[in-house]
Amino acid sequence: MGQMMPRPDLELERLVAVRSVVAFKNAETAELKAISQLAQGVFGVARAAVHILDEDWLHIAEQAGLQFQECPRDIAICDRVVVTQNILTVTDLSAHPEFGSLPYVKGAPDLRSYAGAPIELEPGLVVGTFCLLDPHVREYTAAEVDNLQYFATLAGALLRLQKANFTMSLAARELRDAAMTDPLTGFYNRKALDAIVDLELGAALCEKDTFGVLYLDLDGFKTINDTLGHAAGDRVLVEASTRIRDAVREDDVVVRMGGDEFAIFVPRPDSSTLINGLAEKLLHAFRQPFHVEGESVLARLSIGGAIAPQAGADRATLLRSVDEALYQAKKSGRDRFVSRAL
C-alpha cells in the first residue's frame, strides 16, 4: 500500500471532528468495549475494533480480541473506508493487489479477511471505521454487511454521546474553577480552602507524610488602599501575587483568603527547613517596595506557619495552629515568621 488515497473534499472539516474525538479516546469507554466484544462474538472473528483516523495516524478507540498497536494511516486498510465513505470487505488480503504486501498480512498475525464500515460523527463526516479482522479467508454475506453497518452506526452514536459528555465535563470544570478562583490574582479563593486542606492533609496522613501551611498577611495594605485608592491597592495585590508565585514550588497551592491575606499549602515538605526557607524567601521579596501611582510604598509580610500532623491531624486544629502563629507574628512586630510545631 504505502501511500494514502486522495483525500475527500471535506477532509479539513473531518479532521476537526476527528480531533474532537481523539481528545477523549483514552478515556474508559465501557459501551464501545461492549459493542466491540459483541461484534467479535456475533461475527466470530479474531478482532473487532473501532478505529479513528486523523491526518496521518490510525488511533484505536476500542478493540476486542487480537490486540493491535496504533499505526501510520498509510498502512491502514481503514484508510480506504474513510476516503470512499463506503463499506469495504476483502475475502483474502494476501491475494489483494494493494493490501497483500502489508506487514500484518505478509507476517504475523497473518491476517486474511477484512470488513470495515464508516463511522460518522456528524452526517458526511467519517471519523473512522468499525472493522473486523481475521486470519482466515472469509466472504461476508449481504446480511453480515448490513449488520456491520449497524455496529458502525451504534459506534458513531456512542462517540457523539461521549463527545457531548466530555464537553459538558469540561464546561462544568471551568465553571467550578471559576467559582473557586480569585479573578484578581488567579489564585484559588476562600471557597476552595476546605477542599484543598482535606485533600492534601488526608493524602499526607495516609502516606504517613507531612503537610505544611503558611498564612500571609500583607502589613500596610490598608493604608495603601486608604491613601492611594482601591485601584492602587489592586495593583499592589497583583504584584504581591507575582512575588508569591515566584517564591513557591510548582506543587504548592496558593489561596487568596480575602483582602490582603493569603495561604500557601506545601504538600510533603522534606523538613521544617523547607517551610522556614520559603517563609524567609517571601519575607525578603516583600521587603522590596511596590511602585504605584508614581509612589514607592511598602507592604511587608507577617507569616504564620505549621506542619501537620505535629500541629494538628485535622483541618480545624491545623488551621487554628497556623492562625495562632500568624497572630503571634503580627503581635511580635510584623515582618517576621512565627511557626507552630516545626
TrEMBL record:
<dbReference type="InterPro" id="IPR000160">
    <property type="entry name" value="GGDEF_dom"/>
</dbReference>
<feature type="domain" description="GGDEF">
    <location>
        <begin position="209"/>
        <end position="342"/>
    </location>
</feature>
<dbReference type="InterPro" id="IPR003018">
    <property type="entry name" value="GAF"/>
</dbReference>
<dbReference type="InterPro" id="IPR052163">
    <property type="entry name" value="DGC-Regulatory_Protein"/>
</dbReference>
<dbReference type="InterPro" id="IPR029787">
    <property type="entry name" value="Nucleotide_cyclase"/>
</dbReference>
<protein>
    <submittedName>
        <fullName>Diguanylate cyclase (GGDEF domain)</fullName>
    </submittedName>
</protein>
<dbReference type="Pfam" id="PF00990">
    <property type="entry name" value="GGDEF"/>
</dbReference>
<dbReference type="InterPro" id="IPR029016">
    <property type="entry name" value="GAF-like_dom_sf"/>
</dbReference>
<dbReference type="Pfam" id="PF01590">
    <property type="entry name" value="GAF"/>
</dbReference>
<dbReference type="GO" id="GO:0003824">
    <property type="term" value="F:catalytic activity"/>
</dbReference>
<dbReference type="InterPro" id="IPR043128">
    <property type="entry name" value="Rev_trsase/Diguanyl_cyclase"/>
</dbReference>
